[in-house]
Write a structure and sequence with these properties.
By secondary structure, the chain is mainly alpha-helical. The protein is 66% helix and 0% strand. The protein has one domain. The chain is built from 6 helices and no strands.
Length: 134
């Protein structure tokens, strides 16, 4: 049993760091506090794919999924994927089996890059204000 507890130390450490960050975002709301601004937005005035992610994470700590998606829908999807992968990692460590996460092939990476590019371009146009940070 002690071996299993030691084997999950890394996933639990990552969870502790994530919870600490969530507590910070919950206590110090990104919508009303001054966090480091996005350098890309500060220089160009355009929204990068990550703009609004801090606000989205802060909204998620309050359980406001709609506001989080309004700030940055990509960040919300990334949180869901990250929690899923973390769960798989924890299970693999607990059962002492190898973690099997599919490795994306070149086409999947190209599609992901294309989707992020389209997301970035659309959120910077007048018809994409629904996916621009609020």
């Amino acid at each position: 049993m002690a071996t299993r507890i030691r084997s999950i130390a890394a996933p639990l450490g990552v969870a502790a760091a994530a919870v600490s960050g969530a507590v910070l975002l919950h206590v110090r709301d990104p919508r009303t506090s001054s966090y480091l601004p996005c350098p890309f937005h500060a220089i160009t005035g355009l929204w990068c794919p990550g703009c609004g992610a801090t606000r989205a994470f802060g909204d998620l700590t309050r359980g406001d999924i709609a506001a989080a998606a309004s700030s940055n829908v990509v960040a919300v999807v990334c949180v869901v994927v990250a929690v899923g992968v973390w769960g798989l990692w924890l299970r693999a460590r607990w059962t002492q089996t190898p973690l099997t996460v599919p490795h994306p092939n070149r086409s999947a990476v190209a599609v992901l890059f294309a989707l992020l590019t389209v997301f970035t371009v659309v959120r910077n146009t007048p018809w994409g204000t629904a996916i621009a940070p609020t």
